[in-house]
Amino acid sequence: MTDGSSPEMYRGVKILHDPVRNKGTAYTEAERDLLKLRGLLPPRVHTAAEQELRVLGNIREKPTDLERYLYLVALQDRNETLFYRVVMNNIEEMMPLIYTPTVGKACQEFQHIYRDSRGFYVSFEDRGRVREIMRNWPHREARIIVVTDGERVLGLGDLGADGMGIPIGKLSLYTACSGIHPTQCMPVMLDVGTNNEKLLNDPLYNGIERRRVRGEQYDELVDEFITAANEQFPGVLIQLEDFGNSNAFRLLARYRDRVCLFDDDIQGTGAVAVAGIIAALRITGSELSDQKILFLGAGEAGIGVADVFVAALADRGIPAARARKHCWFVDSEGLLVADRGEVADHKLPYAHDHQPIDNFVGAITALKPTAIIGLSGQAGMFTKDVIEAMASINSRPIIFALSNPTANAECTAEQAYGWSGGRAVFASGSPFDPVELGNKTFVPGQGNNAYIFPGVGLGAIVSRSRKVTDEMFLAAAHSLARQVSDVDLERGRIYPPLSRIRQVSALIAQDVARIAYDNGLADREEPEDIAADIHQYMFQPVYPHYA
User: Fold this and answer.
1) N or C: which end of the chain has fewer CB within 10 A?
2) Which residues are catalytic?
3) Domains recognised in the chain with CATH numbers
């Protein structure tokens, strides 16, 4: 067999139940003889293209997106090559099904739709033996781990162990968008309990039945996990995902210089939003240094965007202290100002001198921002008054409603374009359909982190970087912005089409790997051709040949 495994291990029904090796009806006549599959399959041999046609027909007949999600998960569990072929060849149709917005609904229903084991669970009850249980993972060369504790799933809050759908979905995107081999991807749930009463009272809930662990015991479990992961899979890249604010910033600061680790909600969101701002300036005709951004929401995503924006200004020679004055925040207490009193550590750099303002429209009127970015998790917060206020002070107001899932967006694309008279430069976190206004069609951009994290991860993995740095995320933002074409901009789209996501990721990976090699962070020699090295590494959904 091409992967070096013994043919005796994978014959007959065993190979049909192995999603990595299963080809379903695509096994050739010779393979059916070799692998003892005669009688176990319908007699006709189908091509992968014919199998894809069958899958697409089934998906499109399902009445709801959740049922489409379940069908795709079942396909992934039985035939990963076909699953990724379908996703990659139909990425714009499939991404909303395997990730946002559908994955949010799937997580909310996870305990009721649970079918089969996928992913790895480390619970608070496993403390003291995490190293031992990690040996149970079936794949010996994990290169990327996406881990969550389920406390802040998208904009849906604490979903506990039901948040496992997020790392599973993220890693599907790592494979589909940047070609990390499925067997090198490990989704992990750190189950430390939940404060969600509905889940605790649900007899079908899959997590431990206790309230969330905090403090020293929590930190000890996280440290035990990260230590065990690096012992079991030396140099593995760890992506923190959907941790609550109280832990996300703290864990990133603690581990980012010790292991290869990043937080996508902070750094990935920051890079994708700043890429959108940079691309939008080609429409507005203004300079990066002229921008003043007003954020709605001062959590990890908002602070992450501000940090990358400040880094972009600093890269142009503007001191960081002055660059931070370009970013203002409105949170649940109003405008974030220096004399508010007690302010969370992650917000302090952006608490500027100003009189208090208790509403968002008032902040727009007083500060006159060029862009507003919504990361509040609260639907409808960009009201008609908000959009009209922005349009009254900007000829082309930049409006980013980035909260996920779609139901939590601060405004819709139709509202942003309609209330601004078609002048808004709009982007959202989840997809919206094109908008017809007058005789023009606007194609809203989707500020999806999938434009950033797969490429960053690919570059770090291929170069075997010991760290993921802020410089890498800034480079990723610039790379993404460069890949927005003039045709995209003419239609109002400030991100490339999702159909180009593999090319986008490969180019980002090249820039990230270059930084790793240049800064002495790579645990391998620099290849003669970084681009060729990246492309050679990328998984393609092609069936293996058994002979």
Assistant:
1) C
2) 99, 170
3) 7-98 (1.20.1370.30), 102-259 (3.40.50.10380), 267-449 (3.40.50.720)
